[in-house]
Write a structure and sequence with these properties.
Elements (H helix, E strand, L loop, with lengths): L24 E4 L5 E4 L1 H13 L3 E4 L2
Antiparallel strand pairs: 1-2, 1-3
Length: 60
């Protein structure tokens, strides 16, 4: 039985793809690409990400 692939939790080493701050949000695009954002950039880009049907998860 094949296992389900899961993405690892965000850690302090994960950085925002826009500014380099600590990543708080992961956005997985339908194409499979992944973007990491700090809280500020996640709020800024969230409307477009939702429009693109990205799966958005918040770190701990």
């Amino acid at each position: 039985m094949p296992g389900t692939l899961t993405r690892p939790e965000l850690t302090a080493a994960d950085r925002c793809d826009r500014c380099g701050a600590a990543a708080r949000v992961r956005a997985v695009l339908p194409s499979g690409g992944e973007l990491l954002f700090c809280g500020h950039h996640a709020r800024e880009h969230e409307p477009k990400l939702r429009e693109l049907a990205a799966e958005i998860t918040h770190g701990a």
